[in-house]
Each structure stands twice: as structure tokens, then as C-alpha cells.
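Work Package 4 report. The design task specified in the project plan requires that, given a folded chain encoded as C-alpha cells, an amino acid be chosen for each position. We show below one input record used in the internal validation round.
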């Protein structure tokens, strides 16, 4: 595949994205049908009009009112939908002469639709500069075959005449008018392409008359001819032209681009003259999406405005018409160098300002500029800035403008006259500016350029501020004298490395000297083996101090136990441990640890022992589960009451096994009766309540049989009457069974088509023989056995069906045999009572014979008369038993209700079961099962045993409570005789006599526990004593002690008297505190000599000891004085003074602003050319305007007031003259594609703004027309979206509708093609007047790289307004709408000057907020006044959704987050566009629109959003948290607030000492305020910024940036400034500090 072919396919793939030829496009499938009960629709249908006449009138500036259909459905004839053409009307009727457009829609749909069309068109105009509203004239009705002979009908508009709708108030609400938009009439390009590509059908062109107006009828005539030929040639439904007309919105923005990007159409009339891909390598690379080799690198980026402009003149310097910071200046310089650039412009960094400067500077270089942006606002901001500089007439804004607007701009430019301009003043202005700037630079360089002193680099600023720091710290006059004395000391100048080594040694030497003088100790030096190193000495003294501390702690413990050091030494370890074990065992028993061990205690234990034995005897008679019920009288009484109730209600004749069965039976009875009574009628209920439970139960059983059986009621009654109280019932039952079985056999034979009469004729014997013959036939029996063949022939006698196989035949014969025999038995049946026929009928119907006779037996026990039985049956038959189980045979065993009426039975069973159940439940869950399984017959014995046990427990409990000898819960139940015997045994094992006397006293007089605690103390003290002696055996300590007592032989130090040991330890303690001083003295002195420093040292030490000032500071003062003399500090600083520098700075600011202002005038004068020079005059080709070219055409159009030539033709025939008049043309990609001639490089520079929102395919033809490109945008902001196209393809707005996200924008593609090395970023953030408005995005999106100028107050301007009554549903949250309106009114009331925009996150909420705002504007005069004040500019009060807000900014942004809990409090994790891949970028745009304040109205809490991998929801969660807390809580966030050097810290400390709260390095990015002083009266704001002229100031110094722009931005945020000039502070820092103090007091007063 050739390169050209490959490129063509790549281009086609990109172009295909632009044109939607599917049925989703309204231009292809215009749906006339609307949903039933729809509130509005997407079109108005024009009726009773001639569209051509309407268009003619619109073209001459007429306005038409759109009116609704007022015809009555049943009275008036409906309007004809097919309209007439102008040639088809014989006379001009009144309705054709008026200025109304009649529509077919009735109220209220009419008004709602008008409002919908108006708003959609207004949004497109405001956002994209595109007019989407059209009168469509003519529709093609055509068909598409989907399946064989199955066709889908389509309607497609043909001619589209752009109009605008005007909404005006009237007496009855609103009136809607239509007027011409002065844009070109077009054919439906989508339809043309679909017909051509898919059907090979070429539609006719729409020809224009000499005035550029469409020839409608000629087009329709041609189309009808084409359709006629097509219908003759093609099978299927005929296609036809329908003369319909509508007013509707259509999306055209990509259609013209689709045409324009066909670079391979040179053969076509309106095609490209030359394929741009043959000339522009860079364009190829953009289409292929590969890095380009055709891009020149940026080159040297070391750009300094002060340095670079130093040698330039007013002619060569870049012509800036607005301020430019250092990041912007680099972009401007590279743009002027002709580089292809990518400019990343985060929010509020001055993209528009930079573009304005670039355009101004490029115009001065005589460059032709195409400035493109998809959104109208982006171009409008820049054009407004150029207008402020009086340069707008050099621009032509054709972004969505009408023909009239464009012609008026050209006319205005041609009528422009330029005044006089004094060029010499402009030149002088620049010279003065350079001179003042040079002086400021000289001062900065003087202070900060390195000086070489003794091969060491140092700056004057460092010298000054080291000295100033000392003067500030030591401001006492006496201290100042000592500093002067030190400065006079003659010392050597040493390098910085040795100086840093010297200062700590010098201070230490002085300190050691002072301590030795004060200490006066020498005794230890006489001892042997004194360690000579610091580590050994530390080890020895630490061991000594540790031992001494241990001794003191042991002494304290000995005092508490009232024994001495030697007493504890005599206790044996084994005895102590054994005694402790016994005590622990005692304490684990139930005996109270608070009792003493004596005779009284032992006597009490004996009494309790007797009672425990008695309780254990009684306990043997009880089940274990009963024991818990005697723990309290209440539980005991409850159990006793339950058992008595059971005994009272349970009779001996009952057959229940246990209590549970008895209670359950009662409940079942209760439920049964309730169900029956509930299902009966009123009269039946009274009867039922009066019968006994026995009758009730047997009747229900009988009725349930009838309900479940298949027997008919008449047969049932016959059977019941004949069997009730009949002694022969058993015979009837048996007869029924026989008859039923016979019937079943006959039915089975019938199912096999057997003739039963023939079967009876044949008889059972023949069938028996046939069965035998079949079964006995062998393998070949069927061939040779004659009897077998007879048996088979028998089949033909009983059936006409095909004979079955032998086995099946044998089975059928067997049934026949049974049938014959059984039928014979019927003759013997006793049928005297009911009759055989009746019995047979019953046998056929009845299903369960057994159950009937069981029910009969039950009935006979309770009834005596059959009439009573039948009466009960009829009553209870009413009940529906489908879901009720009422047949409980065991209920017969409940004797207490057997003879009671049903009402009495219900009451009795209910009361007894409830009473017993409630009492059982009250006893707890655990014993419930035990009680239910309790034997009912043993209740009396259980009650007696329970009482006996309770008495014994009560006796034991009484004694335990009285004696206090035992501890524990439920001891009256749990204390055993074995436990008491074990306690007494342990008491006997104690050996108290082997310990100091106070132990036995504690045991006998106080308590067991206190004796145990005392014994534990003995153990701890003894262990500590062992540890003490072990530590003394430490190698160093032991060696030292033994070495100084060598006259004695010591095996162990523990053999020494304790007093001797203590004396040694105390001496080592004192030594450990002081001996190092002596060692340090010699070491420090010799270390100074080792550095080779001797001169002046002793004098410095002397001054230090006398003054108390550190010797290192005194040495620094002396050294600084020497260095300053050598560097000629005083001579150099004598040239500068703070007052002079302030004047220079002020003069520079004035000159700089004046030069920028004069540059606009200079450009205006320099760029202007007379019309004769701009308009190209070429020979005319005829008298028709369509044949005019360049100057003649422009002059012709400029004179007209209406019916202008289409802009496409105007640009095609006169683009050179237009660009000469307007060297900067502003267009959207679609208008550029529609109007500009298809030629390459007609512009020098292409500037694309908001490039992150522009799709690559929209930019290709722009690139083709330009030599250089500057692509401006922000990859962290909104990506391209298909939202607008989708608005024209569907009538429904779905909350979770998936928006088609493009993978990349032209900005991202440029990053691949041009390369990130050709990318520059703007870095100063201007928009936010408070840092809290940008801090969030700066941190989460821009890595804190933005230079954000500090706010002069603390806190946050993100106001959090939570909505508590959220009711989110279907994309709408109405409580939040109300909260937004409340916030709006509150804001307007508090500040009517600040502009406001309302932003929300989806279209549904946007619609609701818009309606609410309109209602509020109608009712609230204050809001109407506010709205009027901000109308007609970029500050208007509007509601916008997330998708549309990029490029907007307002003073206050009110955000409605929409999402939140629904009416049930549930919160979904679906947040619309936020959930999508680039949702976080949308939020970045939303959060950065405000200048002064964000009001966040939200129904969400940050905690409502779950952690997920999707960036959008997580950014929303973090922002909510930010709003809730007023700060970023991310732990990884970089913090600031420390001074950059010791000099600033000394000033900060001095101000702090004077009572001020001072913050350091306030702000973020490259510029922070050095020191910021809080207002003494209001700590939430800063009152003064203190700026130093030090290293940070010099490192990024630019006179414009540092001395003007930065300060102006900060002063705009309310800051006051105090500049610290090093020159003045060097002379008298205290006086300067006092001056600063006075200024703060003045500002705060």
C-alpha cells in the first residue's frame, strides 16, 4: 500500500467520526411521532403557510410571531400538513400576508416546545457560536430494507434555513418570534452523503440567485424528476417529496468540517486546489499520529526579560500589550521565533492574556493569524482584551456570526481612522524603562553576586545579614559594647570550613573553663585505675549510679515492711517460695481473703460445714435444671406458680406425655376455632359458637373430607344418611370398595379401546385359557401352536385396534378376566339399604372411602340425629380449607373443654395456653425445653422436693451472709464439703514461724491477703538485693573497687560492709558529674592548637567569660569585620539607600505600565493600512456579484444593508482583502471549514485555544491553512465530548447515559506529534483571590507547581452548605434546587457587585435549576436588578452543567452536586459523567471557576462515597472532605512555613518578641511572601507582607515580575507591603525594626 493510499484511509477513518449517517441522526431520521403524554416535542410543524414567502420576508428584516393551533378537534377541519409552493397559489390569501407563522401544535405543548427550541439554540450560540435552529422546507420520505420485503420508513429534511427565536414577555406569559439569522441556507449534507454512498443517488444542488438566495422550487422540481426515475428502476415502496415544513434544532458543527477535510477532492468544483498532504509533512504526521521530524526544537530556554531586552531597542523588543509574567514571556518569545508550540495553561494562569500578547506581538511582525476555538467564550475573551487595547478592528470575529455581523465588522474596519502617534516619546519611554531597570538590577547584583575573599566566595548580602542578625539579637547597649570590643580584636581570616570547625570548639573551651573554675574537686584523681577515655568513664559512672539507685529503692521498700537490710538477707529462698505457693492456693479457694486466720474463723467454718452437708443431701432429689430457680425467691415463686397451674388444669385422664404436648394441643384448638369462626357468615357464626367442641371437631373433619374428595354433594348426603348409626356400615364400606375397583378396571380397559360387552360375552374362563396358552407357548409357538393362535385371534373379538405384543396381550386378557369375575361378585352385594345403582354412582365419584368412614365414626360419637349432622355440614361447608389445617385428632384428649361450647372452648384454651406459655417464657430460654418435656404425672412430687431444697439453701445462705467468711456468687448452691476440707488442710501447711514476726501478726490480726502481700514484698526485696550485688560485680566497677582496697582479699563484693560500699558509690557519683571537665579542658585547648589558630583566641575567651556572650559569636563579629574591610562593604553600600531604591522601584512600575499602554497605541498606528492598500483590485468578470472579486465585491457588500452574499462565497472571492483588513481572523473549526477557501498556508500562525476540548479531526483543515501552530489548552481539563451531537439524536435524557469519550484531543495528539519538548507551561495563577479556591486543584492535579499568590486572610473560601433532606431521583434533587436558590439570594443580598454562576453536574438538574431561577427572577425584584446589571457580558447570571462551564469564570460559583440520598436514604455510587474515564478532569474545571468564593450546595458527605479505582468519584470525595474540613487532609501534602535562612528567622523572632504572630513563606509555587504579619485585632487576616531582598529574591529576579507584577497581584488581594532593603538595615537594624513596628500599629489602629 502506498503512503498516499494509507494516508487517505487514515484520513477517512478520522473523517468518519465527524458525520453520523445512522438513524440516530435527526437529519437522517426525523421522528414526527411523539410519545403519549409528552410534555413537549423537538419541533414545531408549520401549517397553512408558504415557506418561500416566509423566507422572503425574513430576508428583508421581518419578524414572525409563532402561533399555536387554536382549532377545536370536533368542530374545525384540521390543517393540511403538505404545504404549497409560491407557484402553486393562485392568489395571496390573508394568512400568507400576515407576520404570523401558524403551527399545528396546541397549548400547552406549543409553549413548552417553543421554550425548549429557544433554550437549545441559545446554548449553542453562547457556547459554540452556532445557530442550530432552522426552518426545514421539504422532507424526503424514503425507505430502507431491513429484511426481505420488510421496509423501514424515514423522513429526512431537505432545505434548512437558519433562523433565531426571540422570547419576549406578553400579557399572557411569553411570546415567541422568529427572525433571520443571516446565515447561509443549506441542504441536508448528511442526507446527500447517505444517498450517494449507500444508494448511489445524487441529489440536485441548491442553486442561488444573483443575491445568493436559494431557488427552492427549482430544487424540488429536479428532485421530483430524480425520484421518479428511481421509483421506476427500484422495487419496493416509492420514495416521495413531502412538502412539510418544521422549526427544529439541528447539529451542523461537524458537517462543514467533514467536507473541508476531504483533502483528496481536487477534481471537485469546491475542492482543495492542492492536496495539503503533499505540501505539509507535519499535517501527515498529525493524521498518522506519529512523532514528527518536521518540528524545529524550542532551542535555548534560558530566557530572562531583563537580560534579553537590555540590548534591544523599542523596534526589536517583543510588543507586549498586556502584562506578562516570566512563564508567559517565554511562550511569547518562542511564538515570535516561529516555533510550533504546545502551551499548557492550568486554570486561571492567563491563557487569554498570553494569547492576546502573542497576537499583538505577531501582528507587529506582520503575521496573518487564524485564532480558533470551539467555544465562543474563548475567542470573545481575547477579542474583548484586544478591544480594550483598541486593536479589535484588526480582528475579524466570524465564530458563528451572521453575514450582517461579518459585513459590519469589515465596514467598521474600513471606516476606522487612526490618530497621530508620537513615536519619539515611545522610544524615550523604552530607554528610560531600560535605565531604571538596569539600576534595580545593579543593586540586586551588587548584593548577591559572589565576591572572592581569601579564595572564598561570599556575597555582600550574607555579610550584611550576619552582622544585622547579631545586632538584632544583642540589642542591649552593654552587649553592643562587648560586640564592638570583639570587632577590634586582631584575628586571622580563616576559610569557612575551618571557621565552622572552630566555633563549636571555641564555645566548648570557654564553657569548660567556666565549669572548672566553679567545680573545685580533685580527690578522685588520687585513686588508681581512673579510666582515660570517655566511654570507659561513662561505663564506670553509669554502673555506679545504677547500683546506688538500686540501693535507695531497696531502702525505701525495707522501710515499708519494717525490717532491715540484714533481716531480708537471712530469709531462705526455698522457704519463701514454698510459703507463697500455699498462700496462692488458699486465695484460689472461696475463703474470703479479708479474714484473719484465728480461732474465731475456724469456729465459723465448722458451722457452715454442717449446713453445706445438709444442702448436698437435699440436692440429690432434684434434677439439675431446677437448681437455678432457687437462686432468688422471685424465680422460685414463678416456677412454683407454674407447676401449680399445670397441676390444676391437667387431669389424670389426659393422654399427653408431657407439658409441651398439652400446651400445644390447647394452642391448636384455639387456632382451629378462630379460623372456622372467621370464615363463617354472621348466622353461621352464632350456630357454631353454640355447639360443643366435640361436635365442632367431628363436623370439621367430615367437611374436610368432602372438600378434599371428588364426591358430589348429593351422593355425599345419600351416603351419609344411609350409613349414619347403621349397623351394616361395614358391609356398605366393603361394597363401595368392590364397586370402585370394578369401575377402575373397566376404565382401564376402555382406555385400551376394549369392547366391554364382548368381554362379558366371552367370559372369564376363555380369557383364563388364552392367558395360559400365551404364557406356555415356546419360541416357535407362534408358528406351530394352534392354541396359541386361537388365543391371539380372540383379540379381534374385543378390539379393532392392532394386536399388541404377547406380553402386553397377556396383561390385557388378565384384566378382562378380572372384569368378568368382579362383575359377577356385584350380584351378591347387599344393596337393600341404598340400592346398587346409587352405590355404583357413589363408588365412581368417591375418592377416599376409608377417610369417609373414619369421619363417620367420629360424627357418631358426638351427634345423635342425622339432621343435626347435615345442618352442621352445610354451615361448616362455607369454610375455605385450602390454606387451613384443622384436622387434629389429639384434640379429643383435652378433657377440660370437651363438653364446652365453641365460644367457651376458645376462651378456655386461649386463657390456659397463654397463662402457661407466658409463665414458662418468663423463666428464660434455657429451662423452657426442660419444662415442656416434664412428666405431667409427677408434678406434685416435684413441688414437694423443690420446697425442701429451698429451705436448706436459705439456711446456708443466712449463715454465709452472717459470717462473712466466704466470697463468691451463689455459694449457697456451689460451696461443697470437699472445698471446706481443702481450705483447712492448706491452713495447716503454713510455716509462719520461719519468717520475721510481722508476717504472723499480719496473718492472725489483719487478713490472709495482707499476709500474702507482705510475703510478696519480701520476695521482691530479696530479688532486688541479689540484683544489687550482681551489678556491683560489673567488670569495671568491681575492678575499680577491689583495686583501691588491695589490702583486703575480696572474693565477692557482697562480703563488704554495706556502708563501705555506699561511700565508694557516692564518690563515683560525684566524679561522674565532674571528671569530664578536667579531661575536656586539656583536650579542648590542644584541639584549638591543632587547627593552627592562636591569634586573638585568649582575648575572645576573656570577653566571653566577662560578657556571657558565646565566644563563637564574638569570633564571628571579629572575623566579619575583617572580611567586610577586605570586601570594601561600606564603600559599595554607600551608593544605595532604601528611600532611593523605593523611588526607583516606583518609577520603574510607572514606566513599565506606560510602555505597555503605549505599545497598544504603537501597534494600532503601525498596523493600520488604508483601504486602498488592503483591498486588492482585480478586473471584474461580469455584472453579477457572484462574479465580483476581492475589493470590488467587498465594496459592493459593504454598501448593502440586507440580502448579503453568503459568507462562503464572500471569503472564497475576497479572502486576501479580508485578511489584509483583518490580519487576525477568529473562527471555530466549523466556521473556518465553511467559509475559508481551500488553500494551504493562507495564514502564518494558527492559535488553538481550549485545545483539550477540540477533537483532532476538527483541527486538521485548520493546520492545513497555517504555517506555524500554537496549541493552547490544559490536559487536566475537559476532554472532547459528543454531548452536543447527542442532544440532537435523542429526546430522552438518561442519567447513566454513556457519553462517547474520544481517546484524545488535538492537545494530546500534538503532544505525540510535536513532542513534549516543544511544550511550555504557564505557571502563575491569577484567578483565585483566595488560595483555598485553587489549593485543591494545585495539589491534586498540578503537583503544587502553580505559583499561587497568598491570600491576605486565613481560612477557606469554599463555603460548605449541606442539604439534609435530600431526595435524589432520576438525575434531579429538588431539595438541593431550593437550597441553591436560597444560597443565591443570600449571596446577592450580601454583595450585589460580585458576579455569580450556578454550576451543576448533569442536564436534568440544570433544567430544574433554570426553571427555579426563572421563577425566582419573576418574583424577586432584587434578583432581577442583579441579573440586569450583569446581562450582556461574560458575567451574566446563568445555570450551566459540568460539560459547558470550561472557559467561564465568575466572582462566585454556586455548585449543586445533585447526587445524594433518595427518599429512602439510599445512595447510589453512580455520579453521571464523574464516573467516566475523564470525570476527574471535569471536576477540575468545575472547582476552578471562582474568583472570590465557591458555595458548595451538596446532599453528599465525603463518607457517602466509597473508595474505588475511578478517579472522578475519588476526587469528588476528596473535594467534599476539603469543603467539610476547610483544608487538604492528605498526609502526603507538602507543608511550608519555615524561614529560608537565619537572617529572616532573626527578623521573625524579633517581631515575635514584640508580640506579633508572624508566618513565614506564605503562598506556594515559585513566589512566597517571606514574612507575613497577622492583624493583632483579627488573627484570621494578614496585615502586612515583609519582603527581603535576599538570595530567593535575586535567584528569580525580574524587575517586572518581582517589583511590579507580583506586588500588584498581591495588593489586589488586599496585601500591604514593607520592603527590607539591606542597605538601611545594615546601618541601623533596630531603627528599621522600630519603623516596621510603627507601620503595623498604624495599619491595625
Amino acid at each position: 500500500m502506498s503512503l498516499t493510499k494509507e494516508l487517505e484511509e487514515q484520513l477517512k477513518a478520522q473523517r468518519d467520526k465527524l458525520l453520523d449517517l445512522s438513524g440516530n441522526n435527526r437529519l437522517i431520521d426525523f421522528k414526527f411521532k411523539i410519545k403519549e403524554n409528552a410534555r413537549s416535542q423537538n419541533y414545531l410543524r408549520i401549517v397553512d403557510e408558504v415557506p418561500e414567502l416566509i423566507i422572503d420576508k425574513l430576508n428583508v428584516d421581518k419578524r414572525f410571531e409563532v402561533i399555536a393551533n387554536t382549532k377545536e378537534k370536533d368542530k374545525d377541519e384540521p390543517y393540511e400538513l403538505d404545504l404549497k409552493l409560491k407557484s402553486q397559489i393562485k392568489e395571496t390569501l390573508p394568512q400568507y400576508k400576515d407576520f404570523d407563522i401558524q403551527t399545528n401544535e396546541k397549548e400547552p405543548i406549543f409553549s413548552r416546545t417553543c421554550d425548549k427550541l429557544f433554550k437549545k439554540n441559545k446554548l449553542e450560540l453562547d457556547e459554540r457560536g452556532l445557530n442550530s435552529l432552522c426552518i426545514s422546507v421539504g422532507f424526503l420520505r424514503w425507505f430502507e430494507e431491513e429484511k426481505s420485503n420488510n421496509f423501514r420508513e424515514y423522513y429526512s429534511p431537505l432545505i434548512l434555513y437558519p433562523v433565531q427565536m426571540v422570547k419576549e414577555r406578553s400579557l399572557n406569559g411569553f411570546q415567541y418570534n422568529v427572525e433571520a439569522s443571516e446565515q447561509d441556507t443549506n441542504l441536508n449534507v448528511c442526507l446527500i452523503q447517505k444517498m450517494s454512498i449507500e444508494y448511489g443517488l445524487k441529489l440536485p444542488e441548491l442553486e442561488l440567485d444573483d443575491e445568493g438566495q436559494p431557488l427552492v422550487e427549482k430544487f424540488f422540481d429536479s428532485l421530483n424528476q430524480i425520484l421518479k426515475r428511481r421509483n421506476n428502476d427500484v422495487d419496493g415502496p416509492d420514495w416521495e417529496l413531502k412538502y412539510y415544513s418544521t422549526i427544529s434544532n439541528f447539529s451542523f458543527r461537524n458537517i462543514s468540517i467533514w467536507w473541508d477535510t476531504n483533502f483528496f477532492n481536487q477534481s471537485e468544483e469546491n475542492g482543495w486546489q492542492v492536496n495539503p498532504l503533499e505540501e505539509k509533512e507535519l499535517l501527515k504526521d498529525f493524521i498518522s499520529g506519529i512523532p514528527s521530524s518536521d518540528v524545529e526544537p524550542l532551542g535555548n530556554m534560558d530566557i530572562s526579560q531583563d537580560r534579553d531586552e537590555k540590548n534591544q531597542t523599542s523596534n526589536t523588543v517583543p510588543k507586549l500589550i498586556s502584562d506578562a509574567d516570566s512563564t508567559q514571556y517565554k511562550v511569547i518569545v518562542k511564538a515570535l521565533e516561529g516555533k510550533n508550540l504546545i502551551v499548557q495553561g492550568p486554570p486561571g494562569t492567563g491563557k487569554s492574556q498570553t494569547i492576546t500578547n502573542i497576537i499583538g506581538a505577531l501582528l507587529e511582525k506582520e503575521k496573518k493569524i487564524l485564532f480558533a476555538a470551539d467555544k465562543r467564550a474563548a475567542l470573545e475573551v481575547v477579542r474583548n482584551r484586544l478591544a480594550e487595547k483598541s486593536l479589535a478592528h484588526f480582528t475579524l470575529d466570524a465564530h458563528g456570526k451572521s453575514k450582517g455581523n461579518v459585513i459590519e465588522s469589515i465596514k467598521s474596519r474600513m471606516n476606522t481612522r487612526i490618530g497621530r502617534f508620537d513615536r519619539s516619546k515611545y522610544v524615550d519611554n523604552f530607554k528610560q524603562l531600560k535605565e531604571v531597570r538596569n539600576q534595580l538590577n545593579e543593586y540586586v547584583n551588587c548584593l548577591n553576586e559572589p565576591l572572592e575573599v581569601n579564595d572564598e566566595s561570599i556575597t555582600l548580602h550574607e555579610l550584611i545579614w550576619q552582622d544585622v542578625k547579631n545586632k538584632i539579637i544583642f540589642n542591649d547597649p552593654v552587649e553592643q559594647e562587648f560586640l564592638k570590643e570583639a570587632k577590634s580584636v586582631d584575628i586571622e581570616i580563616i576559610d569557612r570550613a575551618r571557621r565552622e570547625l572552630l566555633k563549636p570548639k571555641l564555645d566548648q573551651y570557654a564553657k569548660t573553663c567556666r565549669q572548672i573554675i566553679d567545680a573545685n574537686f580533685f580527690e578522685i584523681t588520687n585513686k588508681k585505675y581512673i579510666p582515660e577515655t570517655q566511654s570507659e568513664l561513662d561505663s564506670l559512672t553509669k554502673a555506679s549510679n545504677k547500683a546506688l539507685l538500686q540501693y535507695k529503692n531497696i531502702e525505701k521498700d525495707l522501710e515499708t515492711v519494717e525490717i532491715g537490710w540484714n533481716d531480708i538477707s537471712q530469709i531462705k529462698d526455698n522457704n519463701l517460695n514454698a510459703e507463697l505457693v500455699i498462700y496462692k492456693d488458699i486465695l484460689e479457694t472461696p475463703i474470703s481473703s479479708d479474714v484473719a486466720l484465728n480461732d474465731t474463723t475456724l469456729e465459723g467454718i465448722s458451722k457452715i460445714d454442717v449446713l453445706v452437708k445438709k444442702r448436698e443431701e437435699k440436692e440429690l432429689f432434684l434434677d439439675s435444671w431446677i437448681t437455678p430457680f432457687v437462686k432468688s425467691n422471685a424465680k422460685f415463686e414463678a416456677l412454683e406458680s407454674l407447676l401449680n397451674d399445670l397441676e390444676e388444669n391437667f387431669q389424670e385422664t389426659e393422654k399427653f406425655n408431657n407439658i409441651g404436648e398439652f400446651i400445644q394441643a390447647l394452642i391448636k384448638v384455639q387456632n382451629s376455632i378462630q379460623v372456622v369462626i372467621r370464615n363463617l357468615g354472621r348466622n353461621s357464626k352464632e350456630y357454631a359458637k353454640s355447639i360443643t367442641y366435640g361436635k365442632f371437631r367431628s363436623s370439621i373433619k367430615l367437611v374436610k373430607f368432602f372438600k378434599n374428595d371428588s364426591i358430589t354433594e348429593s351422593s355425599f348426603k345419600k351416603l351419609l344418611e344411609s350409613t349414619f348409626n347403621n349397623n351394616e356400615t361395614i358391609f356398605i364400606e366393603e361394597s363401595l370398595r368392590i364397586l370402585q375397583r370394578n369401575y377402575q378396571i373397566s376404565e382401564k380397559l376402555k382406555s385400551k379401546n376394549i369392547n366391554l360387552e364382548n368381554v362379558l360375552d366371552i367370559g372369564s374362563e376363555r380369557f383364563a385359557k388364552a392367558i395360559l396358552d400365551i404364557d406356555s407357548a415356546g419360541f416357535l409357538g407362534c408358528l406351530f401352536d394352534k392354541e396359541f393362535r386361537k388365543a391371539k385371534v380372540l383379540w379381534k373379538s374385543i378390539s379393532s385396534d392392532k394386536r399388541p405384543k404377547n406380553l402386553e396381550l397377556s396383561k390385557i386378557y388378565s384384566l378382562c378376566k378380572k372384569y368378568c369375575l368382579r362383575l359377577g361378585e356385584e350380584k351378591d352385594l347387599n344393596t337393600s339399604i341404598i340400592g346398587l345403582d346409587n352405590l355404583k354412582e357413589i363408588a365412581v365419584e368417591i375418592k377416599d372411602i376409608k377417610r369417609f368412614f373414619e369421619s363417620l365414626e367420629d360424627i357418631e360419637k358426638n351427634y345423635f340425629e342425622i339432621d343435626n349432622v347435615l345442618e352442621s355440614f352445610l354451615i361448616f361447608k362455607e369454610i375455605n380449607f385450602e390454606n387451613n389445617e384443622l384436622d387434629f385428632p389429639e384434640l379429643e384428649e383435652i378433657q377440660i373443654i370437651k363438653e364446652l361450647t365453641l365460644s367457651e372452648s376458645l376462651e378456655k384454651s386461649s386463657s390456659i395456653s397463654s397463662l402457661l406459655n407466658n409463665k414458662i417464657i418468663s423463666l428464660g430460654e434455657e429451662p423452657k425445653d426442660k419444662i415442656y418435656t416434664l412428666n405431667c404425672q409427677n408434678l406434685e412430687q416435684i413441688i414437694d422436693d423443690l420446697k425442701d431444697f429451698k429451705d436448706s439453701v436459705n439456711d446456708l445462705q443466712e449463715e454465709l451472709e452472717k459470717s462473712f467468711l466466704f466470697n463468691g456468687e451463689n455459694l449457697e448452691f456451689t460451696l461443697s464439703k470437699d472445698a471446706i476440707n481443702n481450705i483447712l488442710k492448706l491452713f495447716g501447711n503454713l510455716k509462719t514461724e520461719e519468717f520475721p514476726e510481722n508476717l504472723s501478726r499480719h496473718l492472725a490480726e489483719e487478713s490472709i491477703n495482707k499476709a500474702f502481700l507482705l510475703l510478696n514484698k519480701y520476695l521482691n526485696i530479696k530479688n532486688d538485693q541479689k540484683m544489687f550485688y550482681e551489678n556491683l560485680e560489673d567488670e569495671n566497677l568491681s575492678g575499680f573497687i577491689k583495686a583501691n582496697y588491695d589490702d583486703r582479699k575480696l572474693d565477692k563484693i557482697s562480703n563488704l560492709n554495706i556502708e563501705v560500699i555506699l561511700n565508694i558509690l557516692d564518690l563515683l557519683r560525684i566524679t561522674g558529674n565532674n571528671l569530664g571537665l578536667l579531661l575536656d579542658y586539656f583536650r579542648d585547648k590542644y584541639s584549638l592548637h591543632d587547627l593552627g589558630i592562636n591569634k586573638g583566641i585568649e582575648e575572645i575567651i576573656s570577653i566571653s567569660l566577662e560578657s556571657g556572650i558565646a565566644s563563637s559569636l564574638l569570633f564571628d563579629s571579629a572575623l566579619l569585620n575583617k572580611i567586610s574591610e577586605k570586601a570594601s562593604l561600606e564603600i559599595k553600600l554607600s551608593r544605595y539607600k532604601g528611600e532611593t531604591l523605593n523611588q526607583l522601584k516606583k518609577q520603574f512600575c510607572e514606566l513599565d505600565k506606560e510602555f505597555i499602554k503605549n505599545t497598544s497605541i504603537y501597534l494600532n498606528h503601525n498596523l493600520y493600512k488604508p483601504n486602498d492598500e488592503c483591498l486588492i483590485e482585480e478586473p471584474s468578470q461580469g455584472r453579477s456579484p457572484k462574479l465580483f472579486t476581492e475589493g470590488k465585491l467587498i465594496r459592493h457588500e459593504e454598501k448593502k444593508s440586507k440580502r448579503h452574499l453568503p459568507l462562503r462565497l464572500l471569503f472564497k472571492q475576497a479572502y486576501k482583502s479580508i485578511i489584509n483588513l483583518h490580519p487576525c481572523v477568529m473562527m471555530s473549526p466549523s466556521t473556518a471549514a465553511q467559509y475559508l477557501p481551500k488553500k494551504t498556508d493562507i495564514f502564518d500562525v494558527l492559535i488553538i485555544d481550549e485545545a483539550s476540548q477540540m477533537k483532532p479531526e476538527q483541527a486538521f483543515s485548520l493546520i492545513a491553512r497555517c504555517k506555524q501552530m500554537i496549541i493552547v489548552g490544559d490536559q487536566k481539563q475537559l476532554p472532547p465530548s459528543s454531548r452536543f451531537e447527542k442532544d440532537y439524536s435523542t429526546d430522552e435524557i438518561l442519567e447513566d447515559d454513556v457519553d462517547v469519550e474520544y481517546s484524545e484531543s488535538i492537545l494530546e495528539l500534538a503532544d505525540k506529534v510535536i513532542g513534549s519538548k516543544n511544550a511550555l507551561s504557564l505557571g502563575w495563577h491569577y484567578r483565585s483571590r483566595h488560595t483555598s479556591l485553587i489549593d485543591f486543584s494545585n495539589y491534586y492535579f498540578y503537583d503544587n507547581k502553580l505559583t499561587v499568590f497568598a491570600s491576605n486572610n486565613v481560612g477557606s473560601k469554599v463555603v460548605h452548605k449541606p442539604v439534609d433532606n435530600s431526595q435524589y431521583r432520576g438525575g434531579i434533587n429538588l431539595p438541593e434546587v431550593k437550597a441553591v436558590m436560597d444560597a443565591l439570594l443570600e449571596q446577592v443580598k450580601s454583595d450585589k457587585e460580585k458576579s455569580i454562576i450556578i454550576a451543576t453536574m448533569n442536564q436534568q438538574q440544570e433544567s430544574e435549576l433554570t426553571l427555579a431561577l426563572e421563577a425566582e427572577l419573576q418574583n424577586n425584584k432584587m434578583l432581577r436588578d442583579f441579573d440586569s446589571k450583569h446581562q450582556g457580558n461574560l458575567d451574566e447570571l446563568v445555570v450551566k452543567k459540568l460539560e459547558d462551564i470550561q472557559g467561564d469564570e465568575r466572582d462566585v460559583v454556586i455548585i449543586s452536586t445533585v447526587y445524594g440520598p433518595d427518599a429512602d436514604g439510599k445512595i447510589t455510587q453512580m455520579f453521571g459523567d464523574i464516573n467516566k474515564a475523564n470525570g476527574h478532569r471535569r471536576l477540575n474545571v468545575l472547582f476552578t471557576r471562582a474568583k472570590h468564593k465557591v458555595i458548595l450546595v451538596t446532599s453528599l458527605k465525603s463518607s457517602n462515597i466509597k473508595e474505588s479505582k475511578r478517579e472522578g468519584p475519588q476526587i469528588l470525595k476528596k473535594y467534599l472532605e476539603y469543603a467539610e474540613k476547610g483544608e487538604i487532609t492528605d498526609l502526603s501534602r507538602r507543608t511550608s512555613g519555615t524561614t529560608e535562612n537565619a537572617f529572616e528567622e532573626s527578623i521573625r523572632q524579633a517581631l515575635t518578641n514584640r508580640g506579633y504572630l508572624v508566618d513565614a513563606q506564605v503562598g506556594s509555587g515559585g513566589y512566597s511572601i517571606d514574612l507575613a504579619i497577622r492583624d493583632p485585632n483579627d488573627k484570621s487576616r494578614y496585615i502586612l507582607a515583609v519582603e527581603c531582598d535576599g538570595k530567593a529574591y535575586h535567584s528569580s529576579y525580574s524587575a517586572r515580575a518581582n517589583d511590579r507584577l507580583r506586588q500588584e497581584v498581591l495588593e489586589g488581594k488586599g496585601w500591604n507591603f514593607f520592603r527590607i532593603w539591606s542597605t538601611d538595615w545594615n546601618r541601623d537594624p533596630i531603627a528599621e525594626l522600630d519603623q516596621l513596628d510603627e507601620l503595623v500599629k498604624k495599619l491595625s489602629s
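The longest helix spans residues 1058-1090. Validation will be extended to a larger panel in the next phase.
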